[in-house]
Amino acid sequence: MTNKIVAIQGNHPSELNPLTDTTIFLANEIQKKNYKIFYYEPRYLSILDTDVIANGFFVKFDYRKKKIFKILKKKKLNLKQCKFILIRQDPPFNLKYISSTYILDTIKHKVRIINDPTSIRNVS
């Protein structure tokens, strides 16, 4: 059985504009497919031995609420447990962000990363 978890690396949901930010739209569509959403910021990504670990939280998005997201559970997650990883990051493309692309490169053959970390780093 496949884990139905999609990890999103991006700015904290409180920084997102629900009217214009497509991250919320994408997360909402992911939820409709019965996937759990694990959300983390690049600064909370690290490597422990051969595992890529993110400190983040499971989150639920709901356009009908005034506060469009609810943090369900904070967790440290091995990203190899995810079905997909989606990178959504607003500028600045700083060292934390660039470092996260190198870290994610180590698991891109084990987990499907929607936007390739190497391409993001080389094109940005």
Structure description:
With 124 residues, the chain is α/β, with parallel strands linked by helices. Helix content is 23%, strand content 35%. The protein has 3 helices and 7 strands; from the N terminus they run βαβββββαβα. It has helices at 22-32, 95-105, 117-123; strands at 5-10, 36-40, 45-48, 51-61, 69-78, 84-88, 112-113. α1 links the parallel β1 and β2 (36-40). α2 runs antiparallel to α3. The chain is globular and about 40 Å long. The termini are far apart. The model has no long low-confidence stretch (mean pLDDT 91).
Can you lay out the helices and strands and say which pair or pack?
Blueprint lengths: L4 E6 L11 H11 L3 E5 L4 E4 L2 E11 L7 E10 L5 E5 L6 H11 L6 E2 L3 H7 L1
Parallel strand pairs: 1-2, 1-6, 6-7
Antiparallel strand pairs: 2-4, 3-4, 4-5
Helix pairs in contact: 2-3
Largest sheet: 7 strands, mixed
Shape: globular
Q: Count the beta strands.
A: 7
Oligomer: single chain
Alpha carbon gap, first and last residue = 36 Å
Rg, nearest Å: 14 Å
Question: Share of helix among residues?
Answer: 10-25%
Mean pLDDT: 91
Count helical runs. Answer: 3
**Estimated structural class:** alpha/beta
Order of helices and strands: EHEEEEEHEH
Beta-strand percentage range: 25-35%
Low-confidence stretches: none
Summarize the entry for a quick read:
The chain has 124 residues and is α/β, with parallel strands linked by helices. The protein has 3 helices and 7 strands.
